[in-house]
Structure formats: C-alpha cells, structure tokens
Amino acid sequence: MKGLDFEKRVEEAKEMLKKLSDPEITLKESVELYKRGMKALKEAQKMLEEAKVEIEQIKKESEN
Fold it and tell me: Angle at which helices 27-63 and 2-20 pack, to 10 degrees?
C-alpha cells in the first residue's frame, strides 16, 4: 500500500503543476495549489526516506 500512497502523492503534485500552468488561474488559487503540491511532494519525500532506512536495515540484517 505504501507504494500506492507514494505514487498518489507524485500524481497529486503533477496535477497541481498542470493546474498552475493554466493562464486563467487566480493568484489565490495558484498559491493554494502550490501549497498543496509542496505538501504532496514533502509527503512523497518522507516515504522515500523511510523506504531507504528500511532497505538499509534489511541489508544489515542480511549481512549477519
């Protein structure tokens, strides 16, 4: 499930970027979309970091 969550966050960020490209968007809307996109990217980054730690633990365990 975590992989799906990661993919979902990345897709959310891509969607926000696409919406930000709309020339008809208001400043208020663009700021809100930017905040939401950054939140999604931050969550995805956290998931990547957690996966990296988990992989390192597995590597250590397999060496013993």
Answer: 150
Tracing tokens 């966050």 back to the chain, one arrives at 9
State pTM to two decimals.
Answer: 0.76
Q: Which two tokens stand for residue 2?
A: 């975590």
Cα(19)–Cα(14) distance, integer angstroms: 9
Please report how many Cα atoms fall inside a 13 Å half-sphere around the Cα of residue 37, on the Cβ side. 14
Tens of pLDDT, residue by residue over 1-45, are 456 799 999 999 999 999 999 999 999 999 999 999 999 999 999
13 vs 25: CA distance, rounded Å: 17
Other Cβ atoms closer than 10 A to 24: 5
